[in-house]
Amino acid sequence: MCKHEAIGDFYRGCGHFHVRYFTGETLDCGSAACKTSASHKHKTANNCGCPEEDKEAFFSWLDEFFSKHLNIAIAPRTAGARHPEPSSESGGGGLSAPPPLKLTTKPTSWGQTTTTGNSDPNFITSYPPTTKGESAAADLAEFFKPTTRWDNPPWYHTASGIPPPLDGKPERYVSSWQSRGSIKTTRIGVLFSDMSVFWSAVTYSLTNPENQRDVKRQAWFLPRPKSLDQETLVEAHETYGDTIALFAESFLGTGQYCARGECWDLANEALKYFDQYDYIPKPVPSISRTHGHLIYEGKASKKGKEMVGRWRGGDDRIRRGDIIEWRTARITSVNAPGSFTILGDPEHTAVIISNSKVLPNVGDGFSIPPSALGSLTVVEQSVGQPPVRKDYNLLGLEEGEMWIYRPIGFEVYLGISDLTPTPPESLPRIQQI
C-alpha cells in the first residue's frame, strides 16, 4: 500500500490524529491492486472495487503509536468519525488548510545514494570532536612545548592542576604529585574520546612558582590506535561480548533501571561490571560516547535517500555485546509505514544483543551504507523507560548518525593496562615532547 504524508492535529484527550490535509508527498507501493498507486491496473474505471485502505491504515497506525507511547486508550475508528476543529483558545488559531496541492508520486526507482569499496576520504561524522593535529593528545602536547607561553597565575600551582586547553576536568583523568623540600612535581594522565592518551609532568619551585624559567615541562602521548584484525576483534567479543549483553538483558522485565536510568549508563555499567573479576583484562571504559574499538560509523540524510558509512577493523559482522551510539537519528518502520522512532536528543546509547548478518567482501576503511547492516536488536533504556528490547531495521534510517563499538581490553587496544599519571617506561608507539 502507498504511503501518504499528512499534516494534522493530535488530540491529547482521546489520542486520535485528525488529518487536515495531505501534502501530496507519496511513496508509491507499485501494487496494481492499489487504487492510489500509479501502477493501478484499472486506469479509467471510476469505481473499480480495488481497495483504498492505505490512508485508513495509516490513521490506525498513528493511533497505535500514540496509544503506546503516551499510555492512553484510543477508541477504534468508525466510518465518518470526526473531531472538532481546534479553537484559538486551544492553540489552533483557526488555521485553515492551504490550497490543494497537485498530487504527485516519487518515482519508484528512488533510493539511497551509496557507494561500495574503499571509503570516501572526505567522509566524516560529528564525533569524536575534530582536532587541529593527528589526535586530541597530540593537540594537548603542543601546549607543553617550550615555545608555548604559559600565562600567570600558573595553572600547575592551582588546586585542580588541569591544563587550560582541557577547559575543565575531562572524562578520564588521573593525577598525582610529589614534593621534595621546595620542589614539587605534578603529573596527569588523560584518555581522550578518540582513544589517544596523554601524560605530563611539571616540576617547579614552591617558593617562586611563577618563575617559568625554572619550570621543567615534560609531555608524552600515544596517537590514536590503529584498527585491529578480525582475530583480535573476535577474541575481544568472546572475552566481553556475551557478558555485556547478559548484563543488559538482566534488567528486562524487572521494571528496574540501570544506575541513574540514563541510556549511557547501561553501557558504562556493563563495562564497569568487569572490575570485580581480576582474572579478566580490564576493558577500555566508556569515555564520552566511545565504548572501545570503533567497528562502524555512518549517517543518513534527505529522508534516507543519501546514506554513507565506513567499516573499521577486520571483523565481518556486528556482534552480540557491541555498543551502539545514535545522534539525532530517525528510523521509520519498514513493516508499519507511517510509524517512526527518534533516537538521540541529541545522543542515545544501546547494547546490541544479537549478531548481524555476515558482510561479504568487507574490510577496514570500506564504504558500507547503514542499510547494508540490516536489522539490529538492542536493549536500551531512557529516563521514564526501564530497559526494553527493541529491533531497528536500518533500511528505515532516514536522518542522523550512528557509531558501533566493540568492547576491548585496555592493553590489547592501547598497549597499557590502565590509565595512570605516569607513562609506561617502554612502549613503541609513545611519543615525547
From TrEMBL:
InterPro entries membership: AIM3_BBC1_C
Source domain of life: Eukaryota
Biased composition (Polar residues): 109-123
Spans annotated as Disordered: 78-123
Domain BBC1/AIM3 cysteine proteinase-fold per the UniProt entry, residue ranges: 223-416
Protein name (Swiss-Prot/TrEMBL): BBC1/AIM3 cysteine proteinase-fold domain-containing protein
Species whose genome carries this gene: Candolleomyces aberdarensis
